Amino acid sequence: MASAFPAYVISGSEKGSNVQDYTPAADAHVIPGDFWFYDTTGNDANVCGADPSVIAGISETDSDAHDALTPDAKVPLRVITGSGLLLALASATTPADTHIGDEYGITKVGDHWLLDTAKTGASARVLVRRVDIPNGIFYVQVLNDQLQFSAVA
User: Fold this and answer.
1) Beta-carbon contacts of residue 98 (< 8 Å; ≥ 6 apart)
2) What is the mean pLDDT of residues 106-112?
3) Is the pLDDT of residue 70 over 90?
4) What is the CB-side half-sphere exposure of residue 54 using CA atoms within 13 A?
5) Domain ranges, residue 134
6) How high is the mean pLDDT of the chain?
7) pTM for the model
8) Using CA atoms, how far apart are residues 37 and 48, in angstroms rounded to an integer?
9) Can you tell me the mean pLDDT for 35-55?
10) Do 19 and 76 touch, CB atoms closer than 8 A?
11) Burial of 129 (0-12, 13-18, 19+ CB in 10 A)
């Protein structure tokens, strides 16, 4: 069964991530499930593009709703620092056991990031660790060479 839902953390948050406050880019609306990157030119967090070359983390908040919480208008964003973090991703493709161990890309469709089985090789961004076939869920880890902060503990 194909599926559509925001990407979310399923396990390993204590081993492969941490939450830090970042200033969102002026034109960025980061919502739960968005993959984001830190823009060193603007010194702010922004939503990843269609085929991200670098991923800093995944958002668990709506930046427009949370920027008023702190005096400096920063928002909490989850930074992925290693392979210990397991994410749940939807896909237009029905998951199968044959996907386990394979690397695929991700594509944003509407408000959701989906695992894209058409993107392989140099376009791969995630490794499928397991699948939930009845619910259409791929459990993935972001490839270390795609992580902007993989060397940060």
Assistant:
1) none
2) 92
3) no
4) 12
5) 8-146
6) 91
7) 0.91
8) 6
9) 93
10) yes
11) middle
